[in-house]
Design the sequence.
């Protein structure tokens, strides 16, 4: 049993392990090649987060999904490069919007070079992803463009907030389906599609990826409250400080509205107030970590992970299917 990929995923078959490791190494080389520019400064900025590492969650899913067809098909590795480049580009933009200081344990690009360079570097990565994508055919371009539309729509909906009368939790879960679920779903879809897997397998893995992606983001929501920077690679409470309503906060607000407990109302006022003050921010984190809303968010994470696992049922049994199921366990474990 060898540990590979994000969260210490264990692969129990030597052939599968070799395929995954070889594929991920090729993706890494592809990322470095795709982020090179004739302008050295652009190369430095574009490779900033590539070299910082990361879980390579989406490329791993491409490799595992490709096991249901021909994992050595020529489109598999380039499609994994495309989804990771797209993901990296969104991180540059997210850090500007969130005014984040740390990403993957290093200074965020906006901290190091300013917002303009960070945004433009994200745009550069989108352009390079599109260049690679063009070689994969019009169907791949269409799939990626639809996912990108969903991703941007999710970000806009998050920024705009729910419409009057819409349940904020339902709105937020729709946001996550666009912001995170869409690209994770495409990772699974590309892996299966590029490997020549049957259409039914492609559809099954796409639905699995959608649910796993939401579970993955919900685990991030929990980590933003519950973890320290060493664990997550980000400054704890970044979303909280910026007033981004993650699931634990939404559950807190719902509890305060439904029951009116003074301690809940007081905590909502603290969370919704000015958290640029370090003491107030630390107090909000401390109280949220002890609040039932955090445990409720953990239960939601488990629910989506279990839905993802259930989607795998029609697939043929084997080591690849077992590894995909184990990813569901890993996401839950990540959320504590």
Sequence:
């Amino acid at each position: 049993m060898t540990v590979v990929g994000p969260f210490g995923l264990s692969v129990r078959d030597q052939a599968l392990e070799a395929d995954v490791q070889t594929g991920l190494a090729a993706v890494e080389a592809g990322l470095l090649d795709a982020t090179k520019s004739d302008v050295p400064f652009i190369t430095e900025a574009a490779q900033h987060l590539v070299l910082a590492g990361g879980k390579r969650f989406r490329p791993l899913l491409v490799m595992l999904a490709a096991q249901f067809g021909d994992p050595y098909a020529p489109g598999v590795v380039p499609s994994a490069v495309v989804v990771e480049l797209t993901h990296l580009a969104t991180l540059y933009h997210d850090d500007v919007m969130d005014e984040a200081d740390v990403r993957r344990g290093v200074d965020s690009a906006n901290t190091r070079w300013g917002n303009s360079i960070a945004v433009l570097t994200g745009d550069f990565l989108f352009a390079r992803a599109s260049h690679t994508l063009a070689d994969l055919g019009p169907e791949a371009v269409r799939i990626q463009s639809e996912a990108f539309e969903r991703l941007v729509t999710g970000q806009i909906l998050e920024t705009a907030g729910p419409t009057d009368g819409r349940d904020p939790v339902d709105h937020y879960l729709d946001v996550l389906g666009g912001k995170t679920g869409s690209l994770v779903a495409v990772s699974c879809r590309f892996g299966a599609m590029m490997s020549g897997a049957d259409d039914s397998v492609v559809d099954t893995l796409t639905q699995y990826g959608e649910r796993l992606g939401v579970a993955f983001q919900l685990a991030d929501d929990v980590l933003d409250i519950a973890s320290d920077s060493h664990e997550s690679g980000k400054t704890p409470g970044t979303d909280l400080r910026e007033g981004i309503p993650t699931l634990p906060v939404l559950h807190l607000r719902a509890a305060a509205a439904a029951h009116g407990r003074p301690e809940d109302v007081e905590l909502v006022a603290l969370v919704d107030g000015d958290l640029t003050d370090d003491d107030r921010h630390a107090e909000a984190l401390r109280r949220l970590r002890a609040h039932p809303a955090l445990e409720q968010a953990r239960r939601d994470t488990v629910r989506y992970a279990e839905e993802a696992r259930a989607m795998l049922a029609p697939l043929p049994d084997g080591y690849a299917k077992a590894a995909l199921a184990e990813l569901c366990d890993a996401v839950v474990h990540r959320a504590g």
Notes: The two ends are 23 Å apart (CA to CA). The beta strands are 2-3, 10-11, 102-103, 106-107. The first strand starts at residue 2 and ends at 3. The chain has a mean pLDDT of 90.
